[in-house]
Amino acid sequence: MNVFIAGGTSGIGYALARHYLEKGYCVGVCGRDLKKIPESLSEKFKPFQANVCDIDSISAAVHSFTGHENNLDIFINCAGSYAEDVAGKISYEEAEEMLQTNILGTVNCFETARKAMKGHTKGKIAVIASVSGIMDYENSSLYTKTKRSVIQIADAYRRALKPFGISVTAVAPGYIDTGKLRQLNNNDLSKKPFLTDVETAVNIISTAIEKQEKLIIFPAKMKWMMKSLSLLPSFLLNIIMYRKAQWMKDDQP
Ligand SMILES: NC(=O)c1ccc[n+]([C@@H]2O[C@H](COP(=O)([O-])OP(=O)(O)OC[C@H]3O[C@@H](n4cnc5c(N)ncnc54)[C@H](OP(=O)(O)O)[C@@H]3O)[C@@H](O)[C@H]2O)c1
């Protein structure tokens, strides 16, 4: 089995790479900076330098991984950009990178994966969105809006690729204990409710891909909290979510 993970050089993507290598699969990963890779895992682990915002770059990486055969079984897009953009406190550069990576990068990954699976009737594609993307409210952060778009882009590709036997799984996790999340929060995750460890997340994500689930939201407590909040009138939801974001960052309202 061949698995390619865009954004597989650290965090959730790298943990997924380890998981598939332990199963004996051949795993290609990419990122912009290969020095991030904690350790090269085995001869079946193939790292490529590529940027998902550039379709030629990601296509070349996947092509180098698969060679001339369209034998890619699983493609997972973990490449994502997130910043602490509470209350709109985000620079132009951060916003640009977030939009490019999370939206254009998602489309580029779907296009690359579908080509690498052409003629293959059992391909599986997955993309990491966020639990925040399941809620629709006016004052949500730019990150949340991009992740909502990721879920919707996945819906569109699921419909388009179904006739070719390719499944699309959108993954909407709550907080996962990765180095990046720690770095953004000065190593203090005490205000991140229902934090999930990365091994648990990998098990949930890989099982959902295997079962060809359309959308997996986890952990369950976070899922039900978000679904309950979604039932509130939008003005109330806006206030609650904004206050919650400020509390997390110790901002004054
Ligand atoms: N951790 C959480 O709590 C959490 C919760 C919900 C959703 N998520 C989502 O899960 C995904 C992974 O998050 P993480 O915490 O594991 O973060 P991470 O460790 O920073 O992983 C992101 C990966 O994507 C790569 N990447 C970023 N921009 C890229 C680009 N333009 N082209 C190619 N690769 C790129 C990074 O490598 P380079 O920077 O070297 O390119 C890295 O390998 C993200 O989409 C994030 O939004 C995370």
Automatic annotation (TrEMBL):
Task: List the CDD domains hit by this protein, alphabetically.
Answer: SDR_c
Return the Gene3D superfamilies for the record.
NAD(P)-binding Rossmann-like Domain
Example GO CC term: the record gives: lipid droplet
InterPro entries given in the database record: NAD(P)-bd_dom_sf, SDR_fam
- SUPFAM superfamilies xref list: NAD(P)-binding Rossmann-fold domains
Among its keywords, does the record have Oxidoreductase?
A: yes
What are the alphabetically sorted keywords of the record?
Oxidoreductase
GO terms of molecular function:
acylglycerone-phosphate reductase (NADP+) activity; triacylglycerol lipase activity
| Record Pfam families | adh_short
An individual GO BP term: phosphatidic acid biosynthetic process
Q: Which family does it belong to?
A: Belongs to the short-chain dehydrogenases/reductases (SDR) family.
User: In its UniProt entry, what is this protein called?
Assistant: Short-subunit dehydrogenase
